Amino acid sequence: MTARAEMPRSDVSAGVGLSGLAGLFLWIAICRNWPGIAEALHLPGPREILSGPHAALMAVVFSGTPMLAWSLLADKVHRRASTGIDWANPRPLSAVIDISTTKLAGLWATWALIGFLYGIARWCWQGQYLFAMEVIGAAAVPMFLLSVPYVLWLDRVLVGPRDGAWHFGAMLIGREAYDREEVWHHLRAWAVKGFFCAFMISILPPGFAAIVSLDLAAIWGDPVRMATAMTALLFLIDVQIAMVGYLVTMKPLDAQIRTANPHLAGWLAALMCYPPFLLMGGGDPLDYHQGTADWAFWMQGHPALLWAWGALLVFLTGVYAWATVAFGIRFSNLTYRGVLTNGP
Q1: Structural domains in the chain (count)
Q2: Neighbouring C-beta atoms of residue 119, cutoff 10 Å
Q3: Is 4 contained in some domain?
C-alpha cells in the first residue's frame, strides 16, 4: 500500500479566525442593542444604534483582539523559529543602535513616500476615501513615535535585524552596502500595505452601518432582500478580518510579509478589482451589468427560482468570506505570509 502523506500543520489555526468572528459578532450585537444597553446601565449620550464610522473602527478592535490573543496564548506564534526571533539571547542596546537607526531611517522614508503618494492621488481625497485619510492622518504621529521603542526592542532579539527596511535606509544614507533585492522586496511589501490599508479603511463604515441598521423584519420572507442582506454580512466579515490582517504584519506575531508578488501580471489582476483601477464598475469595460439587469429582475415572478438562486449566491459568498477568516491575521493580497492547510 502507498503511504498517505500527512497534511503539514497550518501556519494559521482555525481558532484564530473563529475567535475574530466571535468578537465581531459580539460588537455587532452591542451596537444593534445599544439603546437598551445604555438605558439599562444609565450611560450618558443618545439612545441610538451605534452605526457610525467610529463604531466600524471599533469593530476592528473587537475582531483583532481575540485573534491576537489566540495566536499568542493558544498557538504561541511568537515562539516559532519562522519569526526570526531569539527571545533567549537579547543583545545589548549598544550592539543594535546603529542598525536600528538605519532601519528607522528606511521606515520613516517609506512612510513619507506613502504619504506623498496619498497627497497626489486625487481619488484619496474624495468620497469614502476621505475617512481613510482622516484615520491614517490621526495615526501618523503615534506610529512615528512608537516605531522608535518598537524597532529598538525588536532588533535586540532578531537573529537577522538587517531586513528590507534596513537595506532601504542603508541605500538612502549611503554609508553601508545594501542588497537591491531586499530594497525592492521592502518597497513592494509597503506598496501592498499602503494601497490596501487605505481602501479597506474607506469601506469599513458603509458595510458596518448597513448590517447594524438592518431591519430584520423587512427582509423576512423576501428572497432578494434576504440574499442581499446575507451577502452584505459576509462581505462585512471579509472586510473586518482582512483589515486586521493588513494591520498586524509583525514578526513577533509570525505574520510578517515573507515576500510580495514581484510579477506585473499579478499586480494587474489584483488592482483591476479595486478603485481607482476598477474595471467592473458602472460603465467600465468589464461591467457585466452594462445594458442589462440583475438576477432579481430576470427571475421575478418565480419565487422558488429566486430562493434557489439567492441561496447559491449566499453560499458562494460564504466560501469567499470563509477563506478570509481562515487566513486570520495573515490575510493580504499579493503577498506570501505562510502556508494554510485548513479552510476552503
Answers
A1: 1
A2: 11
A3: no
